[in-house]
Amino acid sequence: MSLDSNSQLKFSDHYNSKWMLENCKAVSTSTELDALYSRLISNKELVINVPHTIHLKGPIIPDFEADCLATEEHEHLVNALIASQTSLAEIVVSSSPFAQNLKKRLVVLQRIYHATSKQCHIPTVDITENFSSSDNVAWSTQDDNEPKSGNTVLVELGVETGLSLVFALLEQNWQQSVLIGVPSLCDSILSTAINVLVSLKPLSLANESKLTYLGVHALNRTFSFLKSICSSNSETHISARPLASELMITLAAQRGSLKYVLEWVELAVLSLSRLEGANKIRWSLFHDVISKMMKTAGFSALKTNTGADPQCDENGLVPSHLAAVYLLKQLHGLAEDYCLTHLQLLPSSTDSQQANPTPSRSSGISSTQSSVAMDTCDVYIWGSNSTHQLAEGTTERILTPKLSSNFRDSPVVEAGQFCTFLVSKEGYVTACGKGSYGRLGLGDSTNQPLPKKLTFPKDRAIKAISSSKGSDGHTLALSRNGEVFSWGDGDYGKLGHGNNSTQKFPKLIAGLSGIMVKQVSAGFRHSAAVTEDGDLYTWGEGDYGRLGHGDSASKNLPTKVKDLPPLDHVACGSSHTVAVSKDGKTIWSFGSGDAGKLGHGDTCRQYKPKVVDSLTGLVIQKVTCGCHFTLALTNTGQVYVWGSGSVIGCGSPDAIDAKPRLLEDLQTVRVIDIASGDNHCLALTYDNSVFAWGNNAMGQCGQGHSQSPVTRPKRVVGLTKVPIHQISAGTSHSLAWTAVPSDRRLMSLHKVYCVDIQEGTFNVLRSFLERYCQGFVEGAPPTPFTNNQDHEDFLLLCLRMLTVHFRIAQNSVTTSSTLGSQAKPLRNLLFKLVDMATPDHVQEAVCECLSEGTSLLLPSLGERLELLHSLLPQSPNAWNSLSKGQRMQLSMVLSSLQSDGHITVLLGLKQSRTPSLQYVPDLHLTELLMKIILRNLAYETESSLHNLEHDPDPGSVPTADVQPSDPTAPGAGPGSGDLSCPQLQQLLSSIHKHLFAYCTQADHEECERSRYEEVLSLIQCHLSLLLPLSCEVQVKLCLLCACISV
């Protein structure tokens, strides 16, 4: 696209994210076009030069009467006149309103295409390159695949043979007892086992990370053996079957996982045994077990809104399937309450009238916050212990995470500069490590080898700690009533007490008295605090403008930063500060711009807060700062980094990024927390994995060595199966612990008894649905249900449990890998249920389940494209042949392809790092898809014109502003009065946008030349179909308008 000489384009990449959101259709209306064009000019991306003077003087005309001209002279004169008139015509035409609007359209489209290309068409490395082979070697040392020693093999052999012998003896005794007609001795063994399990503390077998491999294996073998007894129809097990069932549910309660509870439910419901008493369970024992489960899960009693208790017979027994349904109702209630309290989402019940509240954005903070109360908390430590900051006795560095015995049961831990602080559940603080300048707050400057309690004024319970990672060490403490204390080195006034004195005991910052503070951050030589009202106060050294007051003056008292809207939190680095707005949509940085750590694209210092434009459009959950870098975590779990050195994680120790850049090596996981030390970083993912990168000279990256630096994020070894929920990075040591923080709306994938996001859970729920989805039309409910209402209730419970699991998984990971091999059968089953004759409540539950699980049920991109080809009608008349389930599935697939990331992968313009989106592009399939879409849209347009011709009443004809009431309704399609599938036009428009964006970028490397030619050929073929069709439609429309006007 060319511009006239009076205009000059100067596109700025930090506006790309905004231009990406613009729709190309906006250029079709003059109002939107003028607004976009004005934005280009106001952003100085389009510079309009002063137009040159137009010379209208034509060729000199000779006196034909006096002069006799030769033929050649006549021809030259005629050509000169034609050229002059042509030039004049071009000037007139180019200045016409039509030409001016056309130029505007071309410039705006070029800007949108430029943004699209820059944001979406940048190739990325394959996912297998995320981690080096050395990483895999490091991880394998923690896996079960590690070579076993001879002693371990012998012990395993003994356990295996011992279990097999015990099970064989039990079977033999049951058989003999039947033959001789006496009670089996094994029944008393099972009864004893039940009594032992009941007497144990709840969840004694729940934490498998603390059990040996043999212990877990023995539990699994025992559970499988009990399942075989419960599911057996042999008369040999008639007496053992109820006891085995009771032992199974008791054991499942002690293991705490929903998976094991559902396995018992499956046996209780699906068992087809007709033997008297074989399908019953003691209600007293079952009720006690369920009551303990509910209390352990945080409820004082059983839920009362689940219906009446099952009726017992004269022996106190109830049918197992009724007990199973009762249990499933209790678990479903637990799961819904878990969603309401942790995600603030609606329960899956369609009867609920509660409004859907907006999920709160968790407060990302640089100081370590208080956690929920819990009985135990494990703290893992690694890195430098040179001044006893890890409290491990010796001063040897620790290269892999080690469970600390001295930091145990500390729900809040903060790693500082060669020191560590711990906050108890009661709110008192202990410290250990280097004591110079009074940084420990213990009243002296001596090193402290073990945690020692600090003294605070009476009734001052502490909830948050922030300790400096550099300079000479100072610390801020935030009390539960919003007061701020400080101690340590007082240079530059960074303690906020009005002087530069060292403070060896915690001292209240009087300058913040009467102000409720919600978050604090200690930088190297300055400090900051955010109040409950969102005001920012800073104090300490003011060099480079790090305090944000417009100058370089230092402040020894907290001073409010002006001209900022309410803030959520702040982070202080070595000589710069970053603040985040209350809604997370804007972040400001100020101070030293060395190494680009402010994120403005340059190295200039900023004396006042300046918006980081490159993050516009993102919601920032948390920011942290180090010496020469800044990290930002978004609410979608992505990490952006800018600054210099190995800490920016791009593979080079000397790299510099002056603008925020997505940390691609963490793009395939969802990060929920970040932490930064002086020159190394930690990231915590949703599945409790910890990644580290940056300076590793003291082993602070936890890789089992001290080779430094680590230039890409690598998984910290030694934490496999450990439920890590919090992290902290000091100057040269790192901490990770298992307490769940109260400031983060964290939802675990595994909640005791009621939530278990794993393939096995989805497999059991799917088997329930498959077995009991039929029988509503016939009238006779399937065994073991005796009436249709019980049958319907059970099916609804299964669907709602599935919906809750989809909802929780949706808020953690959004790929079909979560469901594993269950994604496809679950997808097919749910869409099959849509077309089946089931009660209305079941239909509503199925639709809600599909709505919650859309992103999880979707297949990979390649399979998605194949599914789309199979579902899309090859002829327009075939729309009416699609069932409601097929329409819903088609709508789901089309909607999933609307995102720019999916379109670029589909066209082969970018490789995907997400496993579900990995796809070998086939432009032939894309061309075929575009033809099918175009054919359907053409038929739909012709049908609309046909309707308009026979019924010219505007109220009876759908317009561009009318949306389909229900595209999945039977009979919806071309000619029915509703759009057949509105996503078709949107998908085709998105494909057009990316194809044109790719081809309009001039600089394609030689290796991409063949791809460029393929894309260009695809565009030409498509336009050869589209343009004649558009002309035909325009002609018909003009004729129709003429007829209507007559």
pLDDT < 50 stretches: 124-145, 272-277, 345-366, 368-374, 955-978
Distance between the termini: 42 Å
Shape: flat
With strands numbered from the N-terminus, the spatial order across the biggest sheet is 6-5-32-31
Q: Can you summarize the main beta sheet?
A: 4 strands, antiparallel
Radius of gyration: 35 Å
Strand fraction equals: 15-25%
Structural class based on helices, strands and sheet pairing: alpha+beta
Number of strands: 34
Helix content: 25-40%
Mean pLDDT: 82
Count of helix runs: 23
Biased composition (Polar residues): 350-359
Organism: Dreissena polymorpha (Zebra mussel)
RCC repeats: 427-481, 482-533, 534-583, 585-636, 637-687, 688-740
Domain RCC1-like: 371-562
Task: Explain what you see.
By secondary structure, the chain is of the alpha+beta class. The chain has 23 helices and 34 strands. Strands 6-5-32-31 form a four-stranded antiparallel β-sheet, with no helix packed on it. A hairpin with a 5-residue loop joins β8 and β9. α6 runs parallel beside α8 and α21 runs parallel beside α23. It is flat. InterPro entries: RCC1-like_dom, RCC1/BLIP-II, Reg_chr_condens, Signaling_Regulatory_Domain. Keywords: Repeat. It holds the Pfam family RCC1.
